[in-house]
Amino acid sequence: MKIAVIGGGPGGLYFAYLMKKHDPSHHLTVYEQNAAGATYGWGVVFSDIALSFLREADEEFYKEFTARHERCDYMEVVHKGVHVQLGNNHFSRTARIDLLNILQGACRRIGVDLCFEQRITDLSALSGADIIVAADGANSHVRSLYAEAFRPSVEQRRNKFAWYGTHQLFHPVSLIFRETQHGIFIAHSYQYSRDLSTFLVEVDPETWQRAGLDRKSEEESRHFCGEVFRPELGSNELLSNRSPWFQASIVRNENWTHRNIVLLGDACRSVHFSLGSGTRMALQDAIALHDGLVQNGNDVAAAFRYYEAVRRPATSNFQSAADKSLDWYENVSRKMHLDPVMFAYDYMRRTGRVSHDALRERDPRFIAAYEAASQAAA
Length: 378
Description:
Layout (H helix, E strand, L loop, with lengths): L1 E5 L3 H13 L4 E6 L10 E5 H10 L1 H8 L3 E10 L2 E14 H14 L3 E4 L14 E4 L6 H5 L1 H4 L1 E15 L6 E7 L4 E8 L5 E7 L1 H6 L7 H11 L1 H4 L4 E3 L5 E8 L3 E2 L2 E3 L14 H19 L3 H31 L9 H9 L7 H7 L1 H14 L1
Parallel strand pairs: 1-2, 1-7, 2-6, 4-9, 7-15
Antiparallel strand pairs: 3-5, 4-5, 8-11, 8-12, 8-13, 9-10, 10-11, 14-15
Helix pairs in contact: 1-4, 1-10, 2-3, 2-10, 10-11, 13-14
């Protein structure tokens, strides 16, 4: 089978790797518009649940992939200057470029053709392919070419974001909420290598304008945000890597397939990073599409049906949870009066997917502190 993958991100590369490893006779080619070493953003984070899917799919790759990860078994919510620890929340972090390098190396070893700096603008160039996998991101060109078939919708959310890095090491996944004269600033931060952390700054549009960030350059914004979070950053500065302000766009598609074309990862659907699930969802898409093709042989239509049957329910569940998470962040000003422990509890319950009893089982110390704070407030 001849398979063309458009997009050399984690989902597209992992699918190509799984297919070629299963059957070396398949001809797999990945087309990526950027150079092999190009990546934007900083680290990626996985929960232990997300990693369990990779281990089940291919333990050899799992071991190579996780060998250099930074790990922590708790997270922190910082509110009113108080660090509230939330135990038994396991996260594994790595540099995005390391993830891509490992995937590229695994693909090369088994004979996947990787074509970098090659943008596919016309699918007629791939007319000989049995399957075309569109894994070209949230702004998918393939999806745009066949918009009438896929029927996409894009919802732009209101908050503004800037994606930075820093040499300040945040060992746990840390959420920092800072009230300023302009409004509320939020930082999503975590260490992903020996000397670097991701530091994503979030702010509502009104605060963004009051702070003059709508008029500041990328460099001026970086410096401004560094001063807002100076207590946490210490002597370290924020680092830029194409770090302009942006708004999150939530992508949905009525149809996931068209003829021999199938959408995968963010091209198919995006999940907001407040749940840390975009890369996980793309990798799980790759596993499901691979499984569908393995089980159905050359029956591409049946394989696509299998893929959708497996992934649509998961997509619906995650996007529903992401919508609630986004609503919580966009309306966090209503929560800022809360005691730090009660604030952290409200954060953990924001999607409706984590019960009080589940939190008690996960971290009885935290729940005891919450119940004591609730009694004191009453």
